[in-house]
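#data-curation
PF: Archiving a pair of folding outputs for the training set. Convention for this channel: one message per protein, sequence first, structure tokens after, nothing in between. First:
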Amino acid sequence: MIAIHQNKVKVIQEKFKVEIENQRDKAIHRLNQLNLKTPVGNDKIYLESVIKLFNSNLDILNWDSTKLLNERNSLGAVPLTPKIRNGKNVLVKSEIKNKILIALGYKGLRSSFYPKYFKEVKIKSCVYCNSQLTISAIKNSKNEYSAKFDVDHYHSKDDYPFLSICLYNLYPACASCNRLKSTHKVEFNLYTTNTSKTIKSDYKFKLECNAKAKYLTTKDSNVIEFGFEEPNYSLGVKTFKEIFHIKGIYQTQLDLIEELIIKSQIYNDSYLKTLNENFNKLKLHPDLFKRALVGNYTEDKDIHKRPMSKLVMDVAKDLGLIQ
């Protein structure tokens, strides 16, 4: 729900420079092996274009958002191949798509590299809904479970498999949002060079004007009403509410708002002052006081660090708990 500055990401990519270079080298080796087994035709032409791209660009895995879009448009989508379905001839994506994904090692990177990389980027929660972590439990052929990092591809890996391991194409997302988004176009850029986009989110939860009074009168959290505001999108682009069902997700979390309303009643100015004075004796950062007060992060720039942080910080501000 908020962008990250590309300069910050570049510093982290430099830290993992050797590993990223090794990923590219392994990808080239596997792509060349795949090419030897691929018969002449559209698949081979497409595959050789991908190999050329990887061979001629040392920084391909670190391409920024603009470069990704340009190269996507230049090379194009994976070839289509005719297939008979229900007695009709239809065009489907060629099997070369899955073979390229395997060659690039995308699945393995989900558990071996992406968790530690995005930990440095400081993304733990879904960048779309902010309600869940981006880790899923996956069962292998031996019925063993392991944790894997979920990422959505801004440029679909089904259409553009050659971009599947490009780091700026990866948007950490929970399994639910990843599935719901599918190939929908979302007008949200996680990576930016615009500093203002990294400070204040374009998305906001807002308590309805009488929500607090209704709850205090009834003591029933089900009467709490809130809204979700998002930016204006281009014509034909679906909203977060339409794709990710934001209101439905957060309607199940009314107890969080309930707790904040109770705190707003208990923590009057004098009590907050006493708490702050006692907290200062610990010589901790003032932001940590606000975080301890509401039970989550309180600045838009920290949204990705913990699930539910956006809802909590927005409602806490509405209630006057934090500025």
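PF: Second:
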Amino acid sequence: MQIAEDAENTLTLANDCQYGLVAGVFTKDVDKALSMARDIDVGQIFINGYFAGGVEVPFGGNKLSGVGREKGLEGLKSYCKVKSVVAKIS
């Protein structure tokens, strides 16, 4: 495993993978943590710890780490199908 020397290199290393399930960011700098969380291409980011989250927190991966989301409203949407019906009734 390589050790990243700076944030840009860290981001490159984190995204240089065909999978994208979960990542963790550990830092005292909240702005850097949120920036990394935005830019790392995974389905779930943990900052300064690991917590599974409740049933209201969507879970799922990006890239080859699965399809769709489980839990939360995003997970519920996978069970729904939108249909529009338009009729002129005289």
